[in-house]
Structures are given as C-alpha cells and as structure tokens.
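Appendix C reproduces, verbatim, an entry submitted by the partner laboratory led by Prof. M.T., so that reviewers can inspect both the input and the predicted structure.
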Amino acid sequence: MIASAMQNGAITLQYADLLRKIQSSTFGAELADLQKVQTVLSMQDELGLANLGTGRVVYVASGIDWEFPVALGARDIDMVDLSFEKTRSGNAKRDLLKSVREADPKATVSKNGDISFGIDLGGEGCENIDLHMIALDADSYTPTVPVQGVIEYNAPHSTNKELVRGNILPSLSPGASVFNFDFYEDYSPDGAVKKPMSQSTHYYKVEDPDRFKASLDAKPRLEEPNYNVKEIRAKLRDLKRADGET
C-alpha cells in the first residue's frame, strides 16, 4: 500500500518517478501538476490513514491523469470525464491506454473498456490498478458501488459550491476521504488578471456520511491555501537528482 512507498519523510525512486509523470489537461496545467505533487508530498502521514486502496475512488474531471489518484493510494478508480465520449475531438481513451502501457506494457482492456494493469512503487511489490472510464459530467454520474474517496476540482468562477456532488454523497463509505481543490484568479474591472492563478487543497475525512456537511464551508481536516511554486519546483528537482537525473 501507499504507506510502504513513503516512510519517514522519504519516498522510493519508483514513487518519485510516478509523481514526475503527473500531467493535467485542465487550465493552469503547470500549477495544477505542481499542486498535485505538493499535496502528495505534504500528506505523507495522512495518506496511509486515508485507505484509498480499500475501495472505489471517484476522480471527477480526471482527464487521462491516472498517476495522481494512484499516487494518493487509489487502486480502483472511476475516471469521470466527458473527454471519454466518442464524439469528442481527440481520443482520450486511446491516450489513457497509451500512458498506462508506458508504465505496464502488459496492461489489458476488458470488453466494457476498463483498463487493468500492475505497478510497483517500491513498497509492496507489484500492485493491481483498475481504471473505469466514464464519459459523463459530475452532475450526471452516479456511483455503482460504495465510494472510499473523491477527488474534485472547483474551477474559477464556477457556480457549483458543493464539496461532494449530491449524487455521489449517498455512496460515501464511513471513513471516506474527500480531496477538494480550488482555483482562484483575481480580475480587475477591465478584465485583466490582477493576480496569477493560485490553488488550494482541502482534505476531509468523512467519519459519518449521514452527518457529513457537503458544502465548501465544511471544516477540512487539512487545509493548504498557499502554494509556493518555487519550493515545489525545487522538490521536483530534488526527486530528479535522487533518481540520477540532472
């Protein structure tokens, strides 16, 4: 599990390689990538307790970024994104499979399109990963099994202020984890950007799903509102040096 790849503030080289491959397809992609890496690095103590590998994890607006939920500890993942629709330009399903097979050339695809593969993060040996591509938006998606974790973003100027969408909330298991990411931009009256895009991470542990307050004013267990981009980039450089890169 994830705890064995992250011990005493250190991570295995395989795990570091996974972090460096995280890729966002959303707006502010570079900052989003850095935020994801910072979230993982700063939550080493929490991730072992999150137990994301014990059940289904829902990744809303995932794109083809399978690395981030796996880095958080997820092993059975609903990747919910409209980009998986056949009518969309590009081929997200093909791109996702290509990305996975770079990690495991023996990855398989089931008749219903699910991808299964193995990955060794240097802790527990080879672990099985299952990805379920779901071509829906968050409001149209309903989980089919109990949910152990949710990863969701709130875009700039979004009117959605729910922490967990109403159709996902009833499926949360006791002890489920919720990762909510906010994007912020500050505009002047003429439309120019006054402050560059920034992001914050909120982590919630859902001890009692029936009493969980599914709104953004719920008190997070962990909150990191400020990201120092220089520090995160330095950490990424350190990871590369640890792996023998220059």
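The first strand starts at residue 6 and ends at 7. Additional entries are available on request from the coordinating office.
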